Amino acid sequence: MMPIRKYNNQNWLPSIFNDFFDNDWMVKANATAPAINVIESNTDYKVEVAAPGMTKEDFNIHLTDNNELVISMEKKNETKEEDKENKKYLRREFSYSKFEQALVLPDDVEKEKISANVNDGVLSIVLPKQTAEEKAKVNRVIEIH
């Protein structure tokens, strides 16, 4: 009589998934929002958004009626590796990144003079502060006639 062997190795399934979905895939799936710095000086506020690989065309910045600065980013990528003879995809990757952040502006920001640029993977937005003269115009006393 032959002995009956029981195969009770339940570790094979996680190994298959680990081999199929390697660590690179997991990192891409768990992408996080970019880091944001807000810096204040005597003359302005500066917002910096870490955005490696992004260009100015990937960003949209606008002001809302609620005194918010809205920063949004959208990037679509597609890379292909093909077998030259049979024209079958051996690997094809799509990536899509989207981010949106709304920041409430301080009352002393000169909205008409806000500027932005992208340099070395960092989006920089400069929010100039109102001068003393501009503040005086806003806070002027209105005479009653």
From TrEMBL:
Signal peptide: none annotated. It comes from the Bacteria. Pfam families: HSP20 (PF00011). Residues 26-145 form the SHSP domain. Gene3D superfamilies: 2.60.40.790. Belongs to the small heat shock protein (HSP20) family. This is Hsp20/alpha crystallin family protein. It comes from Phocaeicola acetigenes.
